[in-house]
Structures
1.
Amino acid sequence: MNSVSSDFSPLFVVPRYGEDIVGGAEELARRFAEELLRRGTPVTVATTCARDHHTWSNHYPEGSHLINGVRVIRFKAETKIADHEIGRIGQIIASGEKVDEKDEKRWLLSVVSSPDLIEFLRLEGRAFSHIILLPYLYGTTYLGAQIYPEKSYIIPCLHDEPYAYLSSVRETLLSVKGLIFNSNAEMSLAKNILGEGIQGSVVGLGFSRPRYDAAAFFNRYPIRGDFILYAGRREEGKQTPLLIRYFRRYLLETGGDLSLVLIGSGKVGIPYDSLAVIHDLGMLTQREKWDCYAASFVFCQPSVNESFSIVLLESWLCGKPCIVNGQCAVTADHVRRSGGGIAFNNYEEFAEGLALLLENRSLAYALGEAGRRYVLSEYNWDSVIARLKKALGVP
Amino acid sequence: MAAEMRFIFEGSGIDPEWLATEIQKRVEERRLSGLFTHQVESKLETPLIPDQETQRLSPIEQLHFSTERALSNWEVTPAYPIATQKKLLAPVIIFLKRILRLWARIAVGPIIRRQSIFNRDVSSALDAVRKEALARKARERADEEDLCYLAECMTDPWETAQFSEECARLLKGSNVIFILGPSPRSLVETLEREGANVVRVFSSDAWNIGGAEYKKLREAPAMFLERISENSLEALVIPELAFWLRPEKLMRIIRMSYLALKYGGRIAIFVRSFANGSFCPWCSPDVMVRALEKAGFSKVEIKSFNYEKANKGFIAHGQKPPED
């Protein structure tokens, strides 16, 4: 196990934090904080009281808390996300059109920010050896990075989306000491947007061997037979509706013995004629989630907005083959490097990939095992912490 | 089921390039076969159902449909755009309309807020009822599938030759025969040999391994009968294993079978004895005759036979009376 030197005392700044938060950047911050603490590093997290990224309403109490041993300081979140004008600017940005810099900044700070958190950084930031901010989009990162840029690092969790091309975002990402990427594909995207000369390195996230019990899942839930699993936020941006559409079409064409199970947060629109074959299990506990991965036949990640895809790697840890959207550079790269799944670019490839796995169980098994080997060799905690130390310049 | 392809696994896993090529090959084959059509796309759109037509949905579908609509429309809002078609007087008219709206908000605002709160509460309650109904339905279905699995475990597919021959004789002349629940492979083969088009209604495909490819519908027996239109089936074969250990299921399945069969349609229920030759109390020949007659079947007969290992069995056979 890599130990970390005693003068290493990082502060993570993330807009939401907690065990019940669903979100890649938030999960990444929590796991890093907990792993570093386990290795003897004093870790602090500065975050807001928000839990829901749609409303950013203050849910948790303010103040200092211990979450799995990690010191977490929560500050009141401020948002104007419901403001009509902010919504209008957001829509223009999301459509890929240009807005002037003033509107850009106004929007960026209005989604979510926290003056108290920024004040805390100003007053207490000196005490920390490194300030690690994530993800790239929010006011906490935009303002937070300006206070001690010489010791600030951003884990941008960058997606190829219009927000990534905002001049304020570019300015922020180029102002800090270093960028930490989750995957090679994400770093390539950053180079495309920011230029080849960026200071950054790929670290990723570490995983330990999980404990799971597929039988427990079937005993717990009224689901039988093979099923495709989707885990994560259920929303348009994550392409959940696309998966539902493809799955329904697949059943319509083949009449296959297959269900679709969706777990995670967010609202999911299940067509009324598919209630018997599409199961929405909502939020599961950690134990239930691992059991669910293990019970599934195949995992599907339809999203194109991924900077790492924790759920994809978790399903591989359970030895499950994966079907990913080929238009997402990150997940397609994982699949190419691991040989642990299939990438689809349209419905036909989705259907044929799925049929191929269903007809050839040995192939499905081999893909799942290749994925498992990939995660354990590339993303074990020892390697990841060593890469993180190198990226932060910690001896 | 297509025969499993042989793969050679080397090194750290499958070659992704090879896999992509394999899928492209299959996609091309399917395209050439004409299987992918844009007609399917049109079936995928969730049908928009006019209010007066929600009656044709099943109660649970209707509950789901209405809840979705209520959850997305519970908030009463007066924020509609103010406009006018009178171009010259537009500024004045819009100003007056704004004044009117302001006045109306003062007067109606509290009512709107209370209505919104009421709508929100009703929507939440509907959502809770829907979740409960869906969970119950899913549990029922899983119970049936588990029952079929258990039943399958105690069935020897090779010891039912006599039963299969007898079934084929009794149902001769039926064009399409539905088999509900776990069924031995020999039964399907025998019925097909006699020229019938056989459809298995069962979730497991365990008996297909190494055998012929049968048509299947993934549906638990009672659930299938609930969904099928009345007077639509010619012939039904039900192994008693579909309701094994569940006496309440016996009557339910027989009653629903009666409704599902066409007038003059035939039913055959196969019952096996325990190893000592006795029958499960609610599956004895007398009980089976009475159950079929109670549900309305006529010409109910019992055909008994012995097969290997000194086990006994019988087929309870009946007909839905022809329409008057």
2.
Amino acid sequence: MQGANILLEPGVFPRLLQGLWVTIWIAAVSVALSVPVGLVCGWLMTLRNPVIRFVMRVYLDFIRIMPQLALLFIAYYGIARAWNWNLDATGACVLVFILWGGAELGDLTRGALQSIPEVQHETAYMLGLSNWQAFIHVILPQAVRRLLPGSVNLATRIVKTTSLAVLLGVVEVIKVGQQIIDANRFQYPTGTLWVYGVIFLMYFIVCWPLSLVAHALEKRWAND
Amino acid sequence: MTETTERTGRDDTIALKVTDLKKHYADAERNVFDGISFEVPKGKVLVIVGPSGSGKSTLLRAIAGLEPIQGGTIALDGTVIETGRPGNEKSGRVKRSEELRTKFGMVFQSYDLFPNKDVLGNITMAPLLVQKRKKDEVEREALELLERVHLADRAHAKPHELSGGQRQRVAICRALILHPEILLLDEITAALDPEMVHEVLEVVVELADAGQTMLIVTHEMSFARAIADRVILLADGRIEERSADAEEFFTHPKTERAREFLHSFDFVRHRDAQAERELREFDAQ
């Protein structure tokens, strides 16, 4: 139990919270920007144009097949350096997570859009709604309800995957934890468990409310 | 074909006129229907009956613009709004102006209320978005319509909170608020439990009495008989019999095809002696 005292060292908690803030910032920006990208991708995936279809298929498969870490390395060490693009490690993370989140959310959106019964489109047509009005007022609200559970799941996956940012040298919560452990290695040899335990709880506190919200909305919309 | 009179000028008494309508699917050998002509006079009710697969729903959908036609014309209120041409089999819903679409009110078999809106939201959406009418005026009219179908107290219910019969009555209100030239009803009671059928059909009968022009596809023969001004029997994509006297059609059909069709609705149990004996043995066990 002595190792637990590492948590009481001055500055440990504030530093962990700073790290958590970086984690949340990367995740929040990525998720927020994935939403428009994903909705547009999902819409494109429902189109009948074979060229658009093929491009979207390649995009989705490429993102799915590649490990996120490989994507991060390609973005940060590959593309940014090759084109002399001034992209910092955090920016590279956000870029990769938007591409990943956008593709996955796009596929969820496609499924949700295609699951809306044809008669809903036909009714909107008969009522004189333009294609855009039908999409905004009839199809999208229903699709959003159907894709919500999957997209919250995706958001928690993005939050968790931000830990890979360590490998690009981003000082987020895991990296801060490692620094604290290294700095106190001699004073608290068993502190590792406690520091990572706190980080585990921090991830839980971030992700848990997301699934609570998703669950509540799912229940509310269950019959709609 | 006797009813289809060729007029050159505009006829103010005809709401919908369909001439020589042709429809086939891209890879099908048979035409869904071939050369169908009829008229719906203003304020009258035309009922289309026929066996399953006769093309009657497709006919209604083609008139509504949901399916392209490959020949013939559709005229609404004296103006030709669509001319069929071959080669457009896969082109999906017909491009029609928003205003023209609101002139056809359509109610489908089921699942056509918007689940994300309450009853009032469903009814007021199109008048607000398409016709750009004022909100308080539209809501007042919506409530009046709901009153007519005895659902004024459900104005803020979500579709999933309603019974099937209530949903169809709301769908009728939603179509009526646009003041359509003609109301198209596509087997609106086919997906309902038997005890709900009556409450929906009662509303439709009231509409007919109020002079609403309607084109109805239905399997409910007693309803068809009660409401129709004119009847068409469609079978295998052809009009087998037409009558301007609905009562006459249902009591004394002229063609063998119509007699056969109407007879299929009579439930008479014919048992031969052998079957009787087996039944008695079964009961005895």
3.
Amino acid sequence: MADEHAVVFDRGRQVRLLVVPPLFEEMNRTRRFLVETQRVLDGLGIDSMLPDLPGCNESLQAFSAQSLRSWRDAMAAAASHFAATHVLAVRGGVLVFPTSLPGWVLEPVKGAAILRQLLRARVLAAKEAGAAESSADLLEEGRNHGLELAGYRLSAALVAGLDAAIPQDEGQRVIRQSDLGGSPLWLRSEPGEDAAQSAALARLVAAEASV
Amino acid sequence: MTQTADFDTALRSLLNDVLGLGAARAEALTADSGLFGALPELDSMAVASLLTEIEDRFDVVIDDDEVDGDMLDTFGGLLAFIRAKRGEA
């Protein structure tokens, strides 16, 4: 696999958790929350790794070259590289995580829902600027030629992939926001962190993790 | 509690979740409180999040061309829009 940055808490323990982040802006919004969760997990005796998706965060690869397939391949490679025993996939991460690992999915979301929100933000911004665009036309353009949405250059493959993708979980346990308390951090543009939510998520994972 | 009061509470909580207003500001919203144009938090990305959450939590579908100034102008206007969508106007 290409070298990618990862936040790693590795002391060679039995339970090794691969954390697959959400996609697009939700990844940035949940980053502090997830790293804080890793810190708590570390204290609870669990190793964890949060790798970058290619083209995202510190990755040197081009975002415009990515697709759900490239992210799936990268997450499978990361699982193998770190010898992960479990996986925690968050939001859109559920579209690209290695499904053979046991674990958890936090508030899974359909690819079409992610795409719809990105398209909508673009249509609204255009409207404010006095231009008329339609989500349906943009989607069609994106599926054929790729598309710029919310500052990301999506490849045609990524647009088509998102439009069709549903959460891949097969037996992983679904965690809901209500299990963590508080407000969903991925909804806010400036979410900060919520130590109580990180602690709740870490405890839940630690209580159910077994090898 | 009537369903109408439920919508009111649910919309406050949704605005708090999406915009991070804090419970006090969310509770202080009145029917005339300005939203789009009045709350700096409400940019086009936040409006997109807001609409997605409204669709999710109130089980309605909102078309692009329904999104206009009237609908997002005030708290009362948005609440009325959701009620109308749910056939309660």
